[in-house]
Amino acid sequence: MTKPEIEFQEGPAPEELVVVDLVEGDGPEAVAGGEVEVHYVGVEYDTGEEFDASWNRGETIRFPLGRLIEGWQKGIPGMKVGGRRRLTVPPHLAYGSAGGGHRLSGKTLVFVIDLIGVG
């Protein structure tokens, strides 16, 4: 797969997590509390501005789901290796409300995640 382009999102930001499978995987399934290896791109919902992408570093990243933002903890389980999924994550499932001390606090975030492996 190649780095995805995330299209600008229309309308008001959703209040709850939105999960959309862009490509259905056919490998092992990610489970809550498990470990995942992913490639991802993240943009701000309101501006479409990219704030992070593993693709830019040229390597995937592997980590336990329990260490990630709640939107990923809820949005990745059930995804299968080989799949690509878009998560639209409201602030309360990302970095909290505005003024929370993180540069992305108060922002709705959009991620496109490719599941490379589970462990």
UniProtKB/TrEMBL annotation:
Its EC number is 5.2.1.8. It catalyses: [protein]-peptidylproline (omega=180) = [protein]-peptidylproline (omega=0). InterPro entries: PPIase_dom_sf, PPIase_FKBP_dom. It is an enzyme of class 5 (isomerase). Keywords: Isomerase, Rotamase. The keyword Isomerase applies. Belongs to the FKBP-type PPIase family. Residues 33-119 form the PPIase FKBP-type domain. GO terms for molecular function: isomerase activity. Pfam families: FKBP_C (PF00254). The keyword Zinc does not apply. This is Peptidyl-prolyl cis-trans isomerase. Gene3D superfamilies: 3.10.50.40.
